[in-house]
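User: Round two. Same drill as before: sequence, then structure, for each protein.

Assistant: Same drill it is. First protein:
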Amino acid sequence: MEPMTEAVLRGADPDELSGLPVPEDYLAAHLRQEDAGVFMGMDSAAKDVRQSVRVGRVPMPELAPDEVLVAVMASSVNYNTVWSAMFEPISTFDALKRLAKGGGWDARHDQPYHVLGSDAAGVIVRTGSGVRRWHVGDHVSVSPVVADTEDPRTHADSLLSDMQAWGYETNFGGMAHYAVVRTCQLMPKPGHLSWEEAACIPLCGGTAYRMLVGEHGARMKQGDIVLIWGATGGLGSFAVQMVKNGGGVPVGVVSSEHKAELARRLGCDVVINRQEIGIGSQPEPGAATVKLAKRLGRAIRQEVGEDPHIVFDYIGRATFGMSVIVARRGGAVVTCGSSSGFEHNYDNRYLWMNLKRIVGSHGMNLAEATEAMRLSRLGKLSPVLSAVYPLAEAGEATRLVQTNGHTGKVGVLCMAPEEGLGVTDPQLRARLGEHTLNPLRSA
């Protein structure tokens, strides 16, 4: 075992960590540029990401002045890792080349390998020469948004700037033993959470917060009825909790009775099994979409007496046409992704004639990510962890998300040798209880 790894796992103090050498290379889940054409000509459904996700050693990059090196204890799988591993809608290496054109420190990102992972929790083991607020030994969670701090728009909202998604549009991501992280991504790790729990919140928790609660999203208020597609998925599981916390009425759409039970455990007031009303996983032609949407609307009104104020849609192509129809007059559809496809078709009459809004949302700024972590410390937000894989099985973990075989979040142990480590506030953890912290696993 490398001296740095041994010291981190032993809980060495900052002085000892600072005095140890940083390894010249490290273990990481990554893609290889030479594999970029492996799925050429194949349909998305046939692209098995286990063929492209590799686990092996990659060179240690040099730190920029505003970066830290994090010994990653745990990470988690997000759908952008699936996109990267399928090399669609574009090759992930094209994004790295674009970033590198900026020159300077950005040039490091253009490598023949791409380290994956847009979530992480771990220990800072090195700081760049310009870092002031963070120190070696700090326990941190990592937000995935890499903002341009010199862009004036960043100071209004970092997502308006020329930002990148860490580990997706940048290199040296979190699904590895070490990760390079900008200081504008760092948050204190909640002490009552294990490493793998803390690694599950930043991307999906922060994204759901922005979509529903923050000033840039749908601005949910008390009493709002919120339809949540994929209510037991990563984003959906966080959305259910936030709607419930905010005094709204979460209406979850799921694909099985097992997931329906989990949605109720998370807090859904109404759960609709889409298979029971004939909604499949692929979009239907125009007239069929209208028919299914009206069927869904009737099912919702039967339970709550009204149409949804907000529709929370990250599924995309398969659901978006129905989302626009189902939202009430003057309501909003908030969208942040398209796991079923990026090209959406909908009948615009249902939008313009009924004064509805489509709100585009993408990631979160650091303030929104921090608010999501604060909700966790208050016991208002569960990490919704459902399964944990070792780093060696990162391809299997990514495949599980690709095939929608998961619920909630899928964690990946990186440097941590086992689950349950990293808790520094056992009193708060005991007070909240395992059922509150892990409703999907306790089920």
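Second protein:
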Amino acid sequence: MSDSTITLPWLVVRRDDNGNRYTVSRCATRVEAEKIAGRLEGHGPTQLYLIERIEQNGQNGSP
């Protein structure tokens, strides 16, 4: 686990129509992640953007 995992625990993840997942941003706060996801949802084709938190053990957890 790197220092950035601890200081930037919130992920913005894009899920495409085939179920593939791509991390598009790492953020310090959930509010920041939600703002980024909101801006991305307003562009291009409809995509699903998820907000996830990385736990101290490095695993993705529930928001």
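The longest strand covers residues 21-27.

User: Perfect.
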